[in-house]
């Protein structure tokens, strides 16, 4: 694969992964009431990262990563001081088509999972855009290449789970 083709694949996957990393931010494990800062880890029973792509204009193909880990340190009083770290092992990639996963996507021509077994994102700057939204800028490492990426994120909720009083 040429460098240009590899760069295009990486850019396309990077853009798609940035979009789906937002879901990691949204589906965090339940934590304590808003004390500054709170540490949240991904709840693996309720978190997955999905991606999709256009298949020659004929259909939308999709896949997901089933095994991810990450952490958000959230400071409600100073959200700009918060941080986000995500780790996505490529071995957990599935499209529902094993030949596509193992014979194509995980090979050196695409994701090169044997050499670069994971995708990571580590934030280095948070800029609030509204009271509940922000742009999180950080380093996205994908297929051995680290580039800056900005995620548009939404903080949905902090506090006690709404059903905790009836189902502790």
Characterise this structure.
With 168 residues, this protein is an alpha+beta fold. The protein has two helices and nine strands, in the order H-E-E-E-E-E-E-H-E-E-E. It has helices spanning 3-26, 98-105, and strands spanning 38-41, 49-55, 59-65, 69-74, 83-89, 93-94, 118-128, 133-142, 145-154. The strands form two sheets. Strands 1-4-5-7-8-9 form a six-stranded antiparallel β-sheet, covered by helices on one side. A three-stranded antiparallel β-sheet has the order 2-3-6. A hairpin with a 4-residue loop joins strand 7 and strand 8. The protein is globular.
Q: Which keywords apply here?
A:
alpha+beta, 3-stranded antiparallel β-sheet, disordered N terminus, 6-stranded antiparallel β-sheet, globular, single chain, 19% helix, 168 residues
The main pleated sheet reads as: 6 strands, antiparallel
Number of helices: 2
- Low-pLDDT stretches are 1-6, 18-34
Overall residue-averaged pLDDT value: 81
Order of helices and strands: HEEEEEEHEEE
Strand order of the largest sheet: 1-4-5-7-8-9
**What is the helix content?**
10-25%
Structural category is: alpha+beta
The value of Rg in angstroms is 17 Å
Number of strands: 9
Distance between the termini: 54 Å
Query: Strand percentage, roughly?
Result: 35-45%
Morphology: globular
